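Teaching note: in complex prediction, the entire set of molecules is handled at once rather than each chain in isolation. The prompt given to students was simply: 'Predict the structure of this complex.' The entities are:
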Amino acid sequence: GQNIDQPTEMTATEGAIVQINCTYQTSGFNGLFWYQQHAGEAPTFLSYNVLDGLEEKGRFSSFLSRSKGYSYLLLKELQMKDSASYLCAVRDSNYQLIWGAGTKLIIKP
Amino acid sequence: ETGVTQTPRHLVMGMTNKKSLKCEQHLGHNAMYWYKQSAKKPLELMFVYNFKEQTENNSVPSRFSPECPNSSHLFLHLHTLQPEDSALYLCASSQDGLGGSSPLHFGNGTRLTVT
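The expected output is the structure of the full assembly:
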């Protein structure tokens, strides 16, 4: 079967750096997405990786290794507003989006 | 108004009720989706409409009935639901359908409680 694994919950300190990992086993690969979802709100698009390497967008970066079935989302200079769930999703060979259960990130002062 | 709008934000209904969820997108997108989100579980795709035509129905029980009158509006009609249907129902849109690389734009969802 197809599967996306992410840690259920992580805690980090304001101003620090945190890395959220995502590993996947899917039938084919056509891109990986990261979304942020604050409690009670809509998931919002953060990044898209289809080739190996690092994509940087301000304080957020996303890395992909297709050979390892692995991605991470790196958040720098953490702010309290970064407390949210982070969802990893992979598009498989049939262009179906396979979702992880999300990682709840708690930021402490 | 911009983005994807869902109404109502909260809905409590009995198992014998009939209700509808509404979604409207103001982005000019061609594809619209219904997802179910339960606590600590991955998003579950329910229905996909591409250019108003239903292209996906992921074995969703018939007590959920979608309707897409045009490319900007999507409804989810609910009847004789079960308590396990209680969840957050998210509507989303994208520029292209499932085969494209464009991201999904989500609404804030309807929190449904079935009593």
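Point out the following to students. Chain A has a mean pLDDT of 96. Chain A is about 0% helix and 55% strand.
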